[in-house]
Specification:
Blueprint: H1 2-61, H2 68-83, H3 87-109, H4 112-115, H5 118-153, H6 157-160
Helix pairs in contact: 1-2, 1-5, 2-3
Length: 188
């Protein structure tokens, strides 16, 4: 009778541990997929913004042909945004893009005819909307990373999470947070 009792307890413990591992693994997979989805959302919004930039440049170019350096900086920032493959690269590209957008809007302020252009105003509105969506996507991504990292680091998950292929993920942080705290402001 004692042997059956010990075997029964061992089986119950094995089942409990198995259920725990199964549920923990599934929740880690879910969080990992959520973080990947959130990163995809960020890249979609960054791509949308990058697609708006050439139209914005063309709208401004007609009025400010001599501002070549500004257009080159915006083009470089756009290329960096499109090639960013991880949060660190995206953060660097974000800094470049914010500086470039400030420059192009500063140029636009010098041309009253441009400020009245419906095309420019529409592009400006779309860009502000996209900046808002980028901010929301970043918050969603960082929230998912926080949940995943917490789950990976909690004991006893930390004992086996790395062996199952789950590592901590990087937050999407920008070096100059004040520069991107708000969408670019354009006052005409």
């Amino acid at each position: 009778m004692d042997l059956f009792f010990v075997v029964g307890i061992a089986l119950v413990l094995a089942v409990i541990v198995g259920i725990y591992l199964w549920s923990t693994y599934n929740s880690l997979v879910t969080l990992n997929v959520r973080v990947d989805e959130a990163w995809s959302d960020i890249t979609v919004q960054l791509k949308r913004r990058a697609d708006l930039i050439p139209n914005l440049i063309e709208a401004v170019k007609g009025y400010a042909a001599h501002e070549r350096q500004v257009f080159e900086e915006v083009t470089k920032a756009r290329a960096a945004t499109l090639s960013a493959g991880d949060p660190n690269a995206a953060a660097e590209a974000e800094n470049m893009m914010q500086a470039a957008l400030k420059s192009i809007f500063a140029v636009a302020e010098a041309y009253p005819q441009l400020q009245a252009s419906q095309n420019f105003l529409q592009l400006q509105g779309e860009l502000v909307d996209t900046e808002d969506k980028i901010q929301a996507s970043r918050r969603f991504y960082n929230g998912g990373v926080r949940e995943l990292n917490t789950k990976v680091l909690l004991f006893p998950n930390t004992l086996f999470a790395k062996n199952l292929g789950f590592d901590q993920r990087e937050f999407f942080e920008v070096a100059d947070a004040a520069a991107i705290a708000e969408a670019p402001r354009v006052q005409f």
